[in-house]
Every structure is written in C-alpha cells, then in structure tokens.
From TrEMBL, chain A:
UniProt GO MF annotations: ATP binding; ATP hydrolysis activity; transmembrane transporter activity
Family: Belongs to the ABC transporter superfamily.
Keyword Nucleotide-binding recorded: yes
Domain ABC transporter: 2-230
InterPro entries: AAA+_ATPase, ABC_transporter-like_ATP-bd, ABC_transporter-like_CS, ABC_transpr_LolD-like, MacB-like_ATP-bd, P-loop_NTPase
Top-level taxonomic group: Bacteria
Protein name: Acetoin utilization transport system ATP-binding protein
UniProtKB/TrEMBL annotation, chain B:
Protein name: Acetoin utilization transport system permease protein
Source organism: Gracilibacillus orientalis
Entry-linked Pfam families: FtsX (PF02687), MacB_PCD (PF12704)
Subcellular location: Cell membrane
Annotated MacB-like periplasmic core domain residues: 22-282
Length: 230, 446
C-alpha cells in the first residue's frame, strides 16, 4: 500500500550562500501492506516527522521515492498531490488541526465540500460519522468548546468521512491524557479491523506503538530496528 | 468544491472582518461614484448638445435647399423630387410650398388669417410626421393645422376696444376658441384683385389633426397645411401661381414661381445618411444634415468622455490599493486555515478562486453602491446646478439642459473597470494563498 525506497533528506540551515547541510534521513526503505498498522518510533529529532511529511507529500525528499497504491507520488505537483490526498489519504494530527472558526460539523464536512459532493449526501455522511465517533450532541460546538479528546475525535471524524484507504497519524495521542489516549487507540484499532484502513503513525510512545502490526525504530535518521508483531 | 460552497466560504470569511471589509467597499464605492459622476458630466453635456441639434429634426433628415447650376442656384422641382426619391436608402422626400397670400379662416363664430403651406401628405406620412392630436388627412379637402393656429383666431364680433392679448402677449382666455379643432369644418377664404375689385372664393376644409408643437418653446406654428388639390382649387380661382394676389404696386406678383420652398430627404437609417449626402453633393445638390454636424461633435465628445473615464479610473486604482491590503491581511490571518485545507486535499486552484471571489465581491459591492450613489448625485446635480447658476450668476440655463447623464453604457464601463481593477488587485494575495507552506502554516497553529 505504501512503499518508501531509499529516501534521503537533507535540510539546508543558515543564511543563503552560507548554508550548512543537515542530513535528517538516510537510506530509508520500508513498505506497509494493505490493512497493516505501521508505527514509526524514535526520539524527538530522530527524523520520524520529516519522514511522515515526505510520505504525506508536504515535503519532497532529496533523493528516493515514495509509492502509494502502486503510484510513484514523489514528483506529483502540489495540485496532483492535493487531489490524491483527498481521495486516498486521511490525517490525524497531534494538535488536531481543526479550523477554529468552523463548528465540529463544518470541520468534518470540509473534505466532502472540497470533493464537491452534493449537500444532501454531505449531510448524511457527516451526521453518520459524527455518530460513529460519539459526537452527535456536539455538532454545533466550535473546537474551543470541546475537550482535547473530543477535538481529536472530530479530527478523526474529518478523516473518516471521506473513507480513505490510508490514514497517516502524527503522534495521535500526543496531546491527550491517558484515559482519552486509550479511547483514541481503541478507535484506531477498531477502524483498522472493521474497515481495513491502513495506518502509518509516528509516535515516541512505546505504549501507543503496541497496537501496530509492524514497528520501525528510527535513530538519527536511519532505521535501526524493524519488528513485526505476531 | 462548487461555486455555492466557495461563496459560503467567502461570506463567512468576510463576516470575520466586517469593519475592514466595509471600509474597503466604501473606498471602492467612492472610486466608482467619482468615475461615474465625472464621466456623467461629459455624457450629460453631449446629450444636451445632441438634443439641441436634433430639436425639430430627425437624425435621418437632410435639408435639400436647391441645386447649383450655371446661374448659381435653382429650386427643387418635381423633376428633382422624382430623382431624389429613386436614390438608394432614401425613405421619403417631403416638400412644401408657401401659398402666396394669407387666407382668412373661419370656424363657427371665430376667424383669423394665417400662413398656409401646401404639403405633400403621402410623403409626410412616410417620413413619420408627428401629430399632437388626430390623424393625417386622407382626402383632398382635409387639412392639419399648427398647434398655435387656435391662438390666431378670434370671435368675429369683437368690440373695437377689446383687449385681445394679455400683458405677456398671450391670447386672452376669454377670446380663445375653447373646443377641439379636430373634426371641425373650416372655411378658407382666398381673394384676388380683378380689375381693381377684390373678389373672394371660399373653400370648405375639414381639420383632421394638429401638428406636434416645435421643441423650441419660443417657436410658434400657426400654419394651415393644405393639400396640392386645394392649391389647384386656389390657383384656378386666382389664375396665378400659388394663389398670388395681383397688385399694381408689384407687377411681378403674378409671375410663375417654380419649385418648392422646403424640401427634406429622409434616409432609411443613420448609416445611409453619409452615402446619400455624398451622392447628392456630387450631383450639385445643396444639402445639409444634422448627422454630419453630429459626427464631428461625437468625435470630440468621445475623446472628452474617454479622458474623463481615464481620470475616474485613477480613483478606482487608488481604492484597489485598499483591496490589495485587505486581501493580503486576509491571507495572512487565514494562513493556518489555508494550511489545514491544503493538508486535507484542497487544490491550490480552489484556494485561489476563493480569494479572487472575495476580491471580486468587494469590487462588485463597491460598484453597485457606487452606481446608486452616483445616480443620486447626478439627479441632485441636474436639479441643483441650474438653480445655483441662476442665483449666483443670474443666468438661466436653456430648458432641457442636462448637466449629468448616466447611460447604461457608462454603468457597464464603470462596473467592468471596477471588476477588472479589483480582480487584478486580488490576484497577488490569492497567489500568495496558494503558495502557503502547509507545514509552516500548521506549525503556526500549534
């Protein structure tokens, strides 16, 4: 489903003409099969976020290629990647990334609006998804009126509403307390089992990584360990 | 993302910065108002001058005064009329001859003398002669009269000391014929000097209509318009050309008079005027048309109006700086929202469209408000300015003088200029929105 081939990435730091190169990823290769949950773990600054951003298309690697659903997406233009993401990739962010001026309902409906679906279908799917994440009573609430856990559920609902085959999660429980963290993890495993959604998540938390079927540990930009759960 | 949803986005975004948007729309509206009001002066003066030129004349009308020949000048006769009527694009050729005596007209107990004109009614009908009341004559002894004819007939048994006219020189209401003339029988009395004895001949006519008053209110039309058959009747009695009265003082009065006094050609359309004029000039006709006068006037005013529109556009360009500023601030304020939208799959084109829609909406609102305000100012100018000029300079402006005029074409030009300028000023901020880096934008949110 997702394949990274020999990814290298270097950041240029400092003023122009006096830049220093910082290698953040070195020869990263891995693959995620359909229906798997891959956890990329590593300490802060290990390069795991850079790797997720490259796979998501937010950054282009210095070298190497990314394949999603057997398509080489590395050289996609911004517009092409936007269309591809809208149809195939959902996101769960550590900081939820909800639009503060929109209600929970409007945030969840947003991807369907971007897809240009008819209003009736949007309403139906948004309400169903709100119910699925247990937020039917909060649809008119703004993000600032919701708890961290509720905001993350809205964020997950926004992802689920387009029924993507792949979800990329960036520290999905990083801003949550332990009780809410478990709720979110249960939701992720449930979605993986029930809908067969492929997950690629980065986390520094070994407890979170435990739900993954495959784990990759990154240290200083290199894969140092790969584990497959029984 | 369809247009309706983009529109929803724009409206909700604009609600968030109401006062800033209001000020930007206000500046745009002021620019549009300035442009329209400024240019409307050019349009107003142009239309006033055109109306002045075309008073009592049709734009397709050509005055054909005669034909140049070896002797200098010859009047238009039936031979030339036949030639003129055959010209391509000529709709009608009207012609009039003045009766060479002033007959007396009697209607009921009223009578009066007035000039009489022989008119070829079929050609007048074709040329579109306008009547204020009634219809054009269909029979030989039917006539139409000028609108001021009624002011030239008085009761027959007036006392010698009767004050017929009031202080303003108008016919005293007490002596005015107060019934409608249309359908009334009228007696025309012509006379001839036979062996030093005045003999009279009475012809009974029926009034079928009253001619439209001349546009210039100081012009009077008291004439009676008779047919060629009535003229033949008069000539049979007087035995002179056009009913001239033989006088010993003027031995030439009975001589034959050729041609018509007034000949007008009417083209099918304005486009054909120039070709007909060129053709007639080549054939030595002495011809004049308001259209040729209008042509030079139009070219002067077109340049003047273009200049005024250009100056007005500068005001909109100044307003566009405000739009650019507002849109740039909007992009900066919403960069995290834009980042999120891009992350979940918003195409950069759609984001650009949303911002362009917003700047266009500001432009459109400004254009609509500006146009309405310009209309109000234009009306006030047209009402107020003549009064100000009258009280300040003691000079009365001519009737129908229009200082400011806003034709649909001016509105269209202003709205199009406004929209183009606002869209252009929104282009750069919209492009900036599409270039927002997703990661930087989302980091800012964190």
């Amino acid at each position: 489903m997702i394949e990274a081939k020999d990814i290298n990435h270097t950041f240029l730091l400092g003023k122009k003409q006096n830049e220093t190169a910082l290698q953040v990823l070195t020869n990263i290769s891995f693959s995620v099969a359909k229906g798997d949950i891959l956890a990329i773990t590593g300490k802060s600054g290990s390069g795991k976020s850079a790797l997720l951003n490259i796979i998501a298309g937010f950054m282009k690697p210095t070298s190497g290629s990314v394949w999603v659903k057997e398509k080489n997406v590395t050289n996609f233009s911004e517009g092409e990647f936007a269309d591809f993401r809208l149809d195939n990739i959902g996101f769960i962010f550590q900081n939820f990334q909800l639009i503060p001026s929109m209600t929970a309902y409007e945030n969840i409906e947003l991807p369907l609006v971007l897809k240009g679906l008819p209003e009736k279908e949007r309403k139906e799917r948004t309400e169903q998804t709100l119910e699925k994440v247990g937020l039917s009573n909060y649809h008119q609430h703004y993000p600032s009126e919701l708890s961290g856990g509720q905001q993350q559920r809205v964020s997950i609902a926004r992802t689920l509403v387009i029924e993507p085959p792949i979800i990329l999660a960036d520290e999905p429980t990083g801003s949550l307390d332990s009780e809410t963290e478990q709720e979110v993890l249960d939701l992720i495993t449930g979605l993986n089992k029930d809908l067969g959604i492929t997950f690629l998540m980065i986390t520094h938390d070994e407890e979170v990584a435990r739900i993954a079927s495959k784990k990759i540990h990154i240290h200083d930009g290199e894969i140092v360990k790969e584990e497959v759960s029984a | 993302m369809n247009f309706k949803d983009q529109w929803r986005f724009v409206r909700s975004n604009m609600k968030r910065s109401k006062s800033r948007i209001f000020m930007t729309v206000l500046a745009t509206a002021m620019g549009v108002t300035f442009l329209i009001v400024l240019a409307s002066v050019g349009f107003g003066l142009h239309s006033t001058l055109i109306a002045d030129i075309l008073q009592d004349r049709s734009v397709t009308q050509m005055q054909i005064s005669g034909i140049e020949n070896d002797d200098g000048y010859a009047p238009i006769t039936d031979e030339e009329i036949a030639e003129l009527e055959k010209i391509d694009g000529m709709n009608a050729v009207t012609r009039q001859q003045r009766l060479r005596q002033t007959p007396r007209f009697s209607i009921d107990d009223y009578n009066g003398s007035t000039e009489t004109v022989v008119t070829h009614f079929p050609s007048e009908l074709k040329a579109g002669m306008e009547l204020a009341e009634g219809d054009l004559p269909e029979k030989s002894y039917e006539v139409v009269v000028g609108p001021h004819f009624i002011e030239n007939i008085f009761p027959k048994d007036l006392p010698a000391d009767a004050e017929i006219y009031d202080k303003e020189g108008m016919l005293n209401e007490d002596y005015k014929y107060d019934e409608s003339l249309v359908g009334k029988e009228i007696e025309m009395v012509v006379e001839q000097n036979v062996d030093n004895e005045i003999k009279e001949h009475t012809i009974t006519l029926t009034i079928t209509g009253i001619v439209e008053p001349p546009a210039k209110n100081w012009l009077q039309d008291q004439q009676v318009y008779i047919s060629e058959e009535v003229l033949a009747d008069v000539e049979a009695f007087t035995e002179t050309s056009r009913g001239a009265v033989i006088s010993e003082d003027q031995p030439t009065s009975g001589e034959e008079v050729e041609g018509y006094d007034n000949v007008y050609g009417y083209a099918d359309s304005l486009e054909e005027i120039q070709a007909i004029m060129d053709d007639l000039t080549e054939k030595d006709y002495m011809v004049y048309s308001a259209a040729s006068e209008l042509e030079s006037l139009n070219s002067v005013f077109t340049i003047a109006k273009a200049g005024l529109i250009f100056i007005g556009t500068i005001a909109i360009l100044i307003a566009s700086i405000g739009i650019f500023n507002t849109m740039t601030m909007a992009v900066t304020e919403r960069s995290s929202d834009i980042g999120i939208m891009k992350a979940i799959g918003a195409h950069p084109k759609k984001i650009k469209q949303i911002f362009l829609l917003e700047s266009s909406y500001i432009g459109l609102l400004g254009a609509v408000i500006g146009t309405v305000v310009a209309f109000v100012i234009s009306i006030l100018l047209n009402i107020g300015l003549p009064r100000i000029i009258e009280s300040a300079f003691g000079q009365e402006l001519p009737e129908g003088f229009q200082f400011s005029s806003i034709p649909p074409s001016l509105i269209l030009i202003s709205v199009v200029i406004c929209l183009i300028v606002t869209i252009i000023s929104g282009l750069k901020p919209a492009k900036r929105a599409t270039e927002i880096d997703v990661l930087k934008a989302m980091r800012r949110e964190m």
